[in-house]
Amino acid sequence: MRGRGTDHGETDHGAHDPNTNDPKTNRNLPINNPLRGDIAAAVTAVRASKPLAQSLTNFVTINLVANAQLAVGGAAAMHYSAEEAHALNQGASKATYINMGTLLEEFRDQYPAAARDTVAAGLPWVLDPVGAGAGELRTAILRSFVDCPPAIVRCNASEAIALAGIWGLDVPGAGRAHAGVESSDEVEAAVPAAHAIARFTGGVVSVSGAVDLVTDGSRDFYLPGGSVWLTKITGAGCSLGGVSATYACVAEPLVAALAAALHYNRAADTAERVANGPASFQTAFIDALWNTSADEIAQSTIFI
Ligand SMILES: Nc1ncnc2c1ncn2[C@@H]1O[C@H](COP(=O)(O)OP(=O)(O)OP(=O)(O)O)[C@@H](O)[C@H]1O
Ligand SMILES: Cc1ncsc1CCO
Ligand SMILES: [Mg+2]
């Protein structure tokens, strides 16, 4: 984080030194690994085809989610209706994003129905279990998803641990109460929960933090870099979920989750160089999502 005393005395967790942040190994995914080609192809495909991922997302960050989807080359449509989800699943939308941030009582039925409809249409959906563990309504909706699991769970470390508990998965710390949208855990603490969730869903879990983890339950990918400024704007994580859904329109879940997280980290690296504070960072970040090349994203350091 640069700028005039901008960290307010907090520790700078900017993940720029792989030796201090790498949780497991320092082995970079080989530069000729086919996954890198798949990631570059996903970035190019989104920019070429402008896919629509529909979103049922929270009121706090809905605008950033839509703008981030547009900035990576996708399209956006926000609503809170299972009936509308069904209509969009019949053609226009290629993936669905469901974010649990700000719930209303009517979402108790609408969210599970939208998730079920997406799965029935043969399309992937992405869950951001914001605030998992807080409140009966949130817990009931999250529990309902066990019958129609998401292709990608995108969350912070505390939410991964809480979600594992709600889904009855046997991992350390699962089931404890969590009452907030910020993570109080490091990514490393969420590794068992992320593995358990991915094995349960048969999909992918993307846990954000100083070094992000993307896992399909058997393969782990650690993604360093990005900027601590992302934690000073609300909705960096929410919009990463929306962008993961955009990528899920054109790529399998593992590639989509990797492309989205890497795109975020490289754009944040760029934005940090010109930011003077959270607001200018957000503006520069959206610009950088638009401008970062497919090759730069695909050639990122990926620890395995
Ligand atoms: N300490 C950090 N250093 C660098 N990047 C970070 C750090 N913490 C989070 N990030 C990045 O910020 C983005 C959002 O992750 P974060 O963990 O803050 O999500 P979140 O808690 O769900 O956010 P929100 O709920 O505000 O949307 C990700 O791209 C992640 O890589
Ligand atoms: C601050 C906040 N409150 C509910 S959702 C949200 C956005 C970050 O998850
Ligand atoms: Mg969040």
TrEMBL record:
**Which superkingdom?**
Bacteria
Q: What does this protein do?
A: Catalyzes the phosphorylation of the hydroxyl group of 4-methyl-5-beta-hydroxyethylthiazole (THZ).
Region feature (Disordered): 1-33
InterPro entries on file: Hyethyz_kinase, Ribokinase-like
Compositional bias ranges of the Basic and acidic residues kind = 1-16
The prosthetic group or cofactor this protein requires is: Mg(2+)
Which pathway does this chain act in?
Answer: Cofactor biosynthesis; thiamine diphosphate biosynthesis; 4-methyl-5-(2-phosphoethyl)-thiazole from 5-(2-hydroxyethyl)-4-methylthiazole: step 1/1
The record's listing under SUPFAM superfamilies reads: Ribokinase-like
**Which intervals carry biased composition (Polar residues)?**
18-31
- Catalytic activity as recorded in UniProt: 5-(2-hydroxyethyl)-4-methylthiazole + ATP = 4-methyl-5-(2-phosphooxyethyl)-thiazole + ADP + H(+)
GO BP of this protein: thiamine biosynthetic process; thiamine diphosphate biosynthetic process
Keywords recorded for this protein, A-Z: ATP-binding, Kinase, Magnesium, Metal-binding, Nucleotide-binding, Thiamine biosynthesis, Transferase
The residues that cross the membrane are: none
Q: Which Gene3D superfamilies match?
A: 3.40.1190.20
Binding of substrate: at which residues?
Answer: 78, 235
Q: What is its EC number?
A: 2.7.1.50
> Which family does the record assign?
Belongs to the Thz kinase family.
Q: What is the protein name stated in its UniProt record?
A: Hydroxyethylthiazole kinase
User: CDD domains per the record?
Assistant: THZ_kinase
Q: Where does ATP bind?
A: 154, 208
Give the organism, scientific name. Bifidobacterium simiarum
Q: Which GO terms describe its molecular function?
A: ATP binding; hydroxyethylthiazole kinase activity; magnesium ion binding
Q: Record keywords: Nucleotide-binding included?
A: yes
